[in-house]
Structures are given as C-alpha cells and as structure tokens.
Amino acid sequence: MTNDRLPVLASQHGALRLLTLNRADKLNAFTPEMLAALDAEITDALAHDATRVIALTGSGAKAFAAGNDIARLVSLDGVAAYRDMMAGQRVLLRLHECAKPTIAMVNGYALGGGFELALACDFIVASSDASFAFPEITLNTMPGWGGTQLAVAKMGLACAKRFVMSGKRFAARECEAFGFIHEIAAPEKLFDSVSALADSLASYDPFAVEMAKRALNRAGELPLSAGLDFEAAQYAVNFSSDGARTGLRQFVERTRARSTAQANTAPVTP
Ligand code: COA
C-alpha cells in the first residue's frame, strides 16, 4: 500500500511521533481499518524508546476528524453498533491510559468520535479555525466512544451537557472558557506549538511524567481517600527512581553552588 493510501500516517520529529488520520476526502471520518491502524501505530510509538510524546492530527486543512463514518454506521444492527463502540472505546482508553504523554493537534473539525479522540489525549492544542461538537444528538443518537464520560471528566457536567445535549458546534475560541483546550495557535503555527509542548514534556524524566499521569487519571474515579492512597503509592514508586534522586540532588547542588558563589563575591567589610 502506498503511503497516501495508508489509513494512518506516522512521522518522527525528534522525540515526537506524529500520527495523522489519512482520509481527508471524508474529513477523516473513522473506518474500522483506520481505528485498527491507529491502535497499531499507538503500540509502535509506545514500544519506541526514543518516542517520548505522541501527537494526533488529521490530514487536509479542514478536519481533525468528523467522527464515525455515518455511511457505514447506518447499515449496522444494534449488536454490530455495540461492538463498534466497544472497539472505539478500547483504543481511546489505551490513549487515555498510555505511559507517554499525548497531544491532540486539532486542525479543523473535531466532531463526534473526533472530539472523543481529542478528549482522550492529555492535551488539546487547537488551530484558531478548529471547532468542536458532539452532533450525535442531531442524528437521534449519542456519543459512544467515551464522549459522555470523557467530556464530564475534562470540562465538568454542565459544559458536557451543553455539548452532548445541544449538538451545537463551538469554535476553538468559544471553547477556551470550557477549560479543555491547552493552547490555541494560528493554523500555520499549529505544529510549532505542538512541537514546543512536546519538547517541554520530553525534557522531564519519562517515569515521573508517567507516574504523575497515572495518578491524575485516577482523580474523579476513586473516592478522595483511595485517590490519595494511590497518589502516595505512585509517589513512593517514583521517589525510588534514579530520575527522582537525580532531580532532587541537582537542585540541592545548584542551590549550594549559588550560595557559595554569592559568599565568594560578597564585599568584605573592613
Ligand atoms: N461520516 C462519513 N462521511 C463524512 C462524515 C462522517 N462523519 N463527515 C463528512 N463526511 C464526508 C461527506 O459525506 C463528504 O463526502 P462526499 O464528498 O463523498 O460527499 C465529505 O466528507 C466532505 O463533507 P461535506 O459534508 O461535503 O463538507 P462540509 O464542509 O459541507 O461539511 C461537516 C462539513 C463536518 C459540517 C459535515 O460533513 C458533517 O456534518 N459531517 C458529519 C459530522 C457528524 O455528525 N459526526 C458525528 C458522526 S457519529
């Protein structure tokens, strides 16, 4: 299969692995093949040590992803639709839980499953011409790839209801108030913004990033006392790592060196 026919394209940019949904003529609407290819590319990126951050985007200038393929969806019976939703949820849950930080580089429409995919990422960096919606209600259906749960977790119940129960499309700038967008960039600067965020994430010890992400993901799922116990356990595991010991020691050494330098340059009083 030639590159332009692959359902998902992968490219490496330093520590960043960029995965591109590749069906621009249908606004990157999901097919089972695209979902399976995305799953395989996530596996590959997670296994590749030099990849420290995974970003997702859509091909073409118009869409990140316009959701599940409606032309295919319409032919499914209830059981097939259920299996379809379970397959989507499984891939999105993998992204949500994966050890490496993830960024949705939203370059246009993020609708239905596309919005769910973006919400499953740790960060959303949106182009100023991006827009977000759960249009399912306008089709007399509802989100099925985790949208009702992820939206509440990422923006709270009231904002999630505005999206899911109105079907209305909101521009990136309008979405800023909902709190789920990390940054908005001009379309021509979108990749640079994602790249800068990836560099910053990759500059920290990957184990510390992984442990912090795991603890954050449990918030809201566990009662506070159990969440605090989980955080303490993650803290202890992280604390025993070489990265934590080095990070703490380097801070102490820097502070000591600064104090010594200040003492040596202090004017001597007669
Ligand atoms: N499933 C299947 N095909 C889709 C699609 C989807 N979710 N979204 C867009 N497409 C296809 C269109 O059918 C069209 O194909 P064609 O050129 O063969 O006719 C192509 O992508 C371009 O879309 P078009 O509707 O012509 O673009 P537009 O700029 O006029 O409108 C949208 C863009 C996103 C507003 C419109 O395509 C839309 O509402 N899509 C459905 C979004 C949705 O409801 N998603 C949730 C699915 S559960």
UniProtKB/TrEMBL annotation:
SUPFAM superfamilies the record matches: ClpP/crotonase
Gene3D superfamilies from the UniProt entry: 2-enoyl-CoA Hydratase, Chain A, domain 1
UniProt GO MF annotations: catalytic activity
Biological processes per GO annotation: fatty acid beta-oxidation
Coiled-coil boundaries: none
Pfam families: ECH_1 (PF00378)
Family, per entry: Belongs to the enoyl-CoA hydratase/isomerase family.
Protein name (record): Short chain enoyl-CoA hydratase
